[in-house]
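Input record (one chain):
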Amino acid sequence: MASPVKVGVIGCGAQGTNHLNVIKELGMEMAVVSAFCDLSPERLQNAKELWPQAEAANDFKAMLAPGELDLVIVATMPNTHMQMALAALEAGADVLCEKPFMRNAEEAETVLETAERLGRQVQLGTNMRYMATSGYLHDLVASGEIGTPVYSKVWGCHVNPPWWGPHYYLSSSAGGVLASTLIHALDLAIWVGGSPNPVSVSASMGRLFPGKRGPLASPEIRERFNVEDLFMALVRFDDGSTCVLEGNWCDDRPPPHCFEMVTTKGKINSEPFIVTVDESGEVVDKTPKLTESSGWGESIRNQDADIIQSLKTGSSWTMQDSRQLLNLQRLIDGCYESARNEREIVL
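The corresponding structure, as predicted from the sequence alone:
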């Protein structure tokens, strides 16, 4: 592809704006935002200031109708993901869809089957995989130098619920702390651990709001808040490893999206970034000094640059495959089923 990749962005909120900024940073020889869509006139205006030449729309079907886009980024709430992803695929575009992918595995399978039928690509927004520390840990585990994963603890904990978006409202979010935030570190830990298949989960969930943090929220949020903000789970994988999940929107412990993993020869931590190894019974710090930044903004930039460069060169997207994506969706589904029914679920 000699010309720039033509990108359409559906949803110009926080994450959509991140993509709009990143694509501008990549340079117009790489990609241009040709169109964007949002229901908010204010967000459309903000996007127009970044990309004045792009077509603005408040209807995603109208945005997709010309069929001229190479890539569509879906950055809306998950209750709209399936219809938008399917429409983008039918319009001839590849799709990058933000988390959570779909509301359930059936929707995920429908989208992936459609992409395969049309010869198109779909990727979930897995930008934490593109952090420098994440790539190092993934390659370290894959090399076998630190042994094999045995146990991991994954958490997604925030001081306040993320009420800057309707994550607290079930009909739009498809879930609270698990689906909206804990999923980031969960995906990362599974990927670093070699992407084993989850086989069972036992989970529980609850709600601390408004007993906690209630006075900080608006009356509208207090009235509509109907998702879990506390989540715990034990997940077993087919390689014999286990994982404990903890999600809490009313916690006091930064950083928010992290994991630690015990292996047969050592231990790794995502943040703070630490690698230790057992050498003749002694715990030895093997943490490397990485020159590349591992910030959230850099990870989004690295992700978008990777998928856009692949489109320009005609290469397939390789960071994630359908098995990994469906495994994550089925695990989320199983977690909620287990918590609702108060029993272990075989996946």
